[in-house]
Design brief:
alpha/beta, 10 helices, about 325 residues
Length: about 325
């Protein structure tokens, strides 16, 4: 029997050693205001406690990997989690409220509700024994880039914020930018008719928001993100693609300026040439072209930037 016990101990020791050599992912449930958020916690190889980030998705209901449907191949947050694990950073990514394994009503969730869920994810991370609670940050993409500052402005313990194509203007003006690009690239609209077409599109946009069943649209229709950005006093990284047709690259400039106006000099801004709103290599960047790109992967230079900046900032 003693021999058997020694064998078992050796096997356990071998398994433990192998686990320490490879990143691991743990399925978790995060207590949140609307019940629970189902998620995945990816841990780097080795022994913690590790610095960590939690991710915030774009507009509308998303699954934890950043995908809008269960089988869509665009999985930005899974890629980010895998990359950061190799750089010594843990990542928590969760299904949005009312999606996947998360409870609650996705349509009823306002921007403030989503920010409360982000704050709950931070609380969860800080309580985990594998995580160094003093070194926890946020990564927000698009709409999540508006939510992340809302969370961080109320939580001075946030150690770092990454804004991926975060908007600097109200949703109404973001949609004006999108509609202008669409109209200017529509061969059926004569140049002399473009301003009229844009005005009509904006009237329709306002009507769509008022009629929408998705509360987040109304909650940010006229919300200015810049006053919140001025309240950020932790290190902030702003990333933007030059062919972003959803959020103007100029918004990154406005965000940086606002953060500096608030007295924070620990802000960096990078523009990636030929990279779209999804942070994929894409010379055109039009929404209708997303699914026809050669790959749904993020541009390697974006991942490399995260892998450089976050470990240095959260060291």
């Amino acid at each position: 029997m003693s021999g058997d016990g020694g064998t078992i101990r050796r096997v356990i020791g071998l398994v433990t050693a192998l686990l320490l050599l490879s990143p691991i992912s743990i399925e978790v449930q995060v207590p949140a205001p609307a019940g629970v958020l189902g998620g995945t916690l990816t841990l780097p190889a080795g022994r913690g406690p590790f610095p960590a980030v939690t991710t915030l998705t774009g507009s509308g209901a998303h699954y934890r990997d950043g995908n809008r449907t269960p089988d869509h191949p665009y999985r930005p947050f899974r890629q980010i989690a895998d990359k950061l694990a190799a750089c010594g950073i843990a990542t928590l990514r969760v299904d949005d409220r009312g999606v996947g394994e998360s409870t609650g009503d996705a349509n009823a969730a306002t921007a403030e509700d989503t920010a409360a869920d982000g704050a709950a994810a931070l609380t969860f991370l800080r309580a985990r024994p594998e995580i160094d609670g003093r070194r926890v940050g946020l990564i927000g993409h698009s709409y999540g880039g508006e939510i992340a500052p809302m969370v961080a402005a109320e939580d001075p313990k946030v150690a770092a914020v990454v804004l991926l194509a975060g908007p600097a203007r109200p949703f109404r003006e973001t949609m004006r930018y999108q509609n202008r690009y669409r109209i200017e690239n529509d061969a059926a609209v004569a140049p002399a008719d473009r301003e009229k077409a844009l005005a009509e599109a904006m009237i329709q946009q306002d009507a769509n928001v008022k009629a929408s069943t998705e509360a987040w649209r109304r909650s940010i229709q006229d919300r200015d993100p810049l006053p919140t950005a001025r309240r950020l006093h932790m290190p902030v990284l702003i990333l933007q693609g030059s062919t972003d047709r959803a959020v103007s690259p100029e918004d990154a400039v406005l965000l940086e300026r606002a953060i500096r106006e608030g007295g924070n000099r620990r802000v960096e801004r990078l523009l990636f040439p030929g990279v779209n709103h999804h942070f994929q290599r894409d010379a055109v960047g039009a929404r209708e072209g997303y699914d026809h790109l050669p790959t749904q992967d993020l541009a390697p230079e974006v991942l490399d930037t995260l892998c450089k900046w976050l470990p240095a900032t959260l060291r």
